[in-house]
């Protein structure tokens, strides 16, 4: 490779970063033990690493401690062993975050991998997952991630997740769609709607993570919640 | 001599002074000067190339660009990676090869199971000689060194190209649990051993093996 031509950087196990980004689109994990990853996000590795599907096997105990949404366990694998492992997802931007005895809720499609110090749970909000505990996790986003402090209102498609925020709620801003003329406008689109009438609102202490585009990552099935009354998205039994 | 340079990360600019480059058909986005574009049949490898490429399915529509001036190439906003070859052989999928200097020879070679698992067929394109080549990848390629003490495992869907003296074989982690419905999604990898460089893209093509 010619350095004068700005040739590519050649990496080996010593020069690959340890639990850090190689470039904005690839993350290098210094594996010594276990990591949880979403299926199919490993692109290459050095060393001795085994990939186990979640289920019955030698990792039963680990999984029962860290994994609390068994219904989508099929989307996750455990990488076990020693070595350097590269993670990437369809050339999307990848970032890692550290949680210290904290919690973070993230859109299911954005989460790529996490350390066993964290435990993964389904969020009450459908389509989102919550990580609780201490450790590092890796998330993908469409464009770079921006951190914002509440109070803030965000576009639903730009929301990646939030940490420590108590109040994710809907907000509608369509005062100009009231009245007879406004009603006609909303129903027919005559006069125009801005497409930004609906937002998510966050207040309280914490951080909100936004991606710099409004193109959503494909959702990953977060599993079904029990069909009980009072459980969001779990339809009550008929006859109750 | 043709001079390859990157203009941004997704456009390749080639300075030509009367010489020629081989480029993916239709990859020219702009040119300045006087250029001729000639479609080459069979990847530009002559009659033998036509026949091998037809038989192997490693089809490559290539044009020869000759002239004086600057020609810019790009392919669906993919990232462009420059590779300088000094006598060694570059193995690359035909779909990932954007442009090569006319001094480089291209051909096809048998890859065995790896090609099949990538859904690319059993053959791959080789580039040989001294000069520069440009590859495209979905996201900037990461270049990983393989040495005797550090063999490398690569997901078939993320593999782009490799150079050097590498042995590759298919590694499978398929066991009874795969068939019990507990597939890990990482059951197949290509294992590279020897001395060389492997280009990996931060994205996975949909592969036959990737679902297992």
TrEMBL record, chain B:
Lineage: superkingdom: Bacteria
SUPFAM superfamilies listed in its UniProt record: TRAP-like (SSF51219)
InterPro entries, alphabetized: AIM24, AIM24_sf, Trp_RNA-bd_attenuator-like_dom
Pfam family, one: AIM24
Protein name per the record: AIM24 family protein
């Amino acid at each position: 490779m010619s350095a004068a031509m700005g040739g590519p950087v050649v990496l080996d196990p010593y020069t690959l970063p340890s639990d850090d980004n190689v470039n904005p689109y690839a993350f290098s994990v210094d594996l010594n033990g276990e990591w949880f990853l979403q299926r199919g996000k490993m692109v290459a590795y050095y060393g001795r690493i085994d990939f186990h599907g979640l289920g019955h096997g030698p990792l039963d105990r680990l999984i029962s401690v860290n994994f609390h949404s068994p219904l989508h366990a099929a989307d996750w694998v455990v990488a076990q062993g020693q070595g350097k492992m590269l993670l990437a997802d369809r050339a999307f931007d990848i970032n890692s975050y550290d949680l210290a005895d904290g919690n973070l809720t993230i859109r299911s499609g954005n989460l790529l991998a996490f350390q066993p110090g964290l435990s993964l749970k389904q969020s009450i909000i459908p389509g989102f997952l919550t990580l609780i505990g201490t450790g590092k996790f890796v998330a993908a986003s469409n464009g770079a991630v921006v951190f914002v402090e509440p109070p803030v209102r965000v576009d639903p498609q730009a929301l990646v997740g939030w940490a420590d925020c108590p109040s994710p709620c809907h907000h509608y801003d369509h005062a100009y769609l009231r009245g007879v003329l406004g009603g006609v406008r909303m129903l027919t689109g005559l006069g125009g709607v801005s497409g930004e009438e609906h937002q998510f609102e966050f207040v309280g202490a914490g951080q909100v993570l936004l991606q710099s585009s409004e193109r959503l990552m494909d959702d990953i099935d977060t599993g079904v919640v029990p069909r009980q009354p009072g459980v969001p998205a779990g339809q009550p039994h008929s006859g109750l | 001599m043709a001079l390859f340079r990157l203009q941004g990360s997704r456009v390749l600019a080639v300075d030509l002074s009367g010489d020629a480059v081989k480029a993916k058909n239709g990859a020219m986005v702009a040119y300045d000067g006087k250029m001729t574009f000639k479609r080459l049949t069979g990847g530009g490898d002559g009659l033998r190339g036509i026949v091998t490429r037809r038989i192997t399915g490693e089809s490559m529509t290539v044009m020869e660009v000759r002239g004086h001036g600057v020609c810019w190439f790009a392919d669906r906003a993919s990232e462009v990676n420059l590779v300088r070859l000094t006598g060694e052989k570059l193995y690359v999928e035909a779909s990932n090869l954007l442009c090569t200097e006319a001094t480089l020879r291209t051909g096809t070679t048998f890859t065995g199971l790896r090609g099949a698992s990538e859904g690319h067929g059993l053959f791959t394109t080789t580039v040989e000689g001294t000069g520069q080549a440009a590859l495209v990848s979905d996201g900037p390629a990461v270049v990983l060194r393989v040495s005797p003490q550090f063999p490398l495992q690569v997901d078939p869907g993320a593999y782009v190209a490799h150079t050097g003296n590498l042995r590759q074989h298919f590694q499978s982690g398929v066991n009874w649990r795969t068939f019990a419905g507990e597939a890990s999604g990482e059951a197949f990898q290509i294992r590279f051993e020897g001395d060389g460089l492997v280009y990996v893209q931060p994205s996975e093509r949909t592969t036959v093996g990737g679902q297992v």
